[in-house]
Amino acid sequence: MTPAALRHPLDPEPVRSTKAGTVFALGLVALLTGPFVGGLVPASIAIVLAGQARREAYQSGGYLTGAAWLRRGERLAWLGVAVATTSLVIAVVIGILDFASSPAGQDFGPGVD
């Protein structure tokens, strides 16, 4: 039997989840803005939406599609978080090295008491 023969005539048509496309777009924005640490906001929104979309797809019984877009978007969001975290760690290390190389205390000239 083909899948079309098993389907009831009153069943709805499968539709792609709009949240899957949104998760992908937000994940892409998170990856592109990750080096500026601004990628954390769209990444966190994408990760939350991915969980909601996954639950909705499960509850729909297979009538919501877009799982591939959802996975790709979630991966991009996590990569955006990793890039933002890496750039933040690099900035902190550069700041610590700059602070450590500066002279300590007050630096007066040779003739000042």
Automatic annotation (TrEMBL):
Keyword Transmembrane helix among UniProt keywords: yes
Protein keywords: Membrane, Transmembrane, Transmembrane helix
Transmembrane stretches, start-end: 20-50, 76-97
Membrane found in the keyword field: yes
Protein name: DUF4190 domain-containing protein
